[in-house]
C-alpha cells in the first residue's frame, strides 16, 4: 500500500522562456490541484513582461514559492556560487522530489539532491533533457565534454524522463543506454488548448512564433518567405512574434531584403492570441525535442508547417506533407507556397484533433509523471523495511 501523503515537488530549470517553462507550469498546476506542494527554481536574468505575467498566473499554484537566482547558459566558475545558494534554498524547502529540466536544471537538481541524500535526507532526483545538451555534435570538443558530464550524472539520478522517442533515441546514441531507469512521457497541452482559434479578418499569411535565435530558424523563415513570394508571383504578409538575443539581427535582415513592410515583428504574447494573427503557423527549427508551440497549434486547429526535427514526425507521421527538411529555406518555401495555392491543403494534411488529444493531453502527462514520482518516493511499510533488513543481514525468515 502506498503512502498517499501530499508530495513536496521542486522543478529546477534555467530559462523561464519557451517550452520548458510551459511544461513546468502545466505540471505544477495539475499537481497543485491534486493537493501536492509545488515550487520553481530558475534563472533571474531571463524573461520580460510576458514571462512576468506567466509567473503571476502560476504563482497561486506554487505553495513552495518561486526561487530566482542568476544562472548563466554556459558553464563557468559562477556555477559554484549558484550551487551553494541553491543548496541552501532547497534544503529549507525539504522537497520529496527534485525534477531538473534542461542541462543546467538537471545538474542543479541532481547535485543538490545528492548532497541532501548524503545528509540522509530522502529525495528523488529526476532529469528531463528537453533537447538541451543533446543538440551538441558528438564529434565536437564541447559535445564530448558535455556528454561525459551527462554520463557521470546518471549515478545521481533516480529516473530520466524523455518527452518524445526522438529525444530518448538521441540520448542513447550520443550518451549511451542509461544505467538506471528511464521513462517516455509525451508533452501534452491542456483541455482549454483543444478549442479552435478563430483567425482574425485581417490576419497575415504566415506566422513565426518563438525564441529569436538561430536554433529556432527565424532567418530561414525570412528567406523562405521571400522565396514564397517569388514562387506565387505576388506580395504576401507575415508576422514574427517573440523575444530573444538575435531579434535585432532578424529585423535588420528583413529590412535589408526589402521585406519590412510585409513582415512585422511583435514581442512575445500568449500563444492563442498569436495564432489569431495568421492563417498558417511555420516552425522552421533547426533542432527541437517536442515543441509545445507545435502541439498547441494542432490543438487550436491551426495549419502548421514544420521541419522534420525532434518528436514532430511522431505526431504528424513521418510521411506528412507538412514536414520539410531542416535548414532548407527552398523546401520550406515550396510548402509555404502550397498552402497559398491549394485551398484544401490543411484539410488533407493536418491530423485529427481528437487523435492528438488522446496522446498529447496535459492530464495524461501529469498523471504519468505523478505515478513516477510516487514510485520513486514510496517508503516501505514497517514490515517491508524489517524484511529488507533481514535479507541484507542474511537472516531472512520466509514465515515472518
Automatic annotation (TrEMBL):
Residue ranges of every copy of the Glycosyl transferase family domain listed in the record: 197-343
InterPro entries documented for this protein: Glyco_trans_1, Glyco_trans_4-like_N
Pfam families reported in the protein's UniProt record: Glyco_transf_4 (PF13439), Glycos_transf_1 (PF00534)
Coiled coil residues, start to end: none
Domain Glycosyltransferase subfamily 4-like N-terminal: 17-189
Entry superkingdom: Bacteria
Alphabetized CDD domains for the sequence: GT4_PimA-like
Transmembrane segments: none
Stored Gene3D superfamilies: Glycogen Phosphorylase B (3.40.50.2000)
The protein's name in its UniProt record: Glycosyltransferase involved in cell wall biosynthesis
Organism of this sequence: Sinorhizobium kostiense
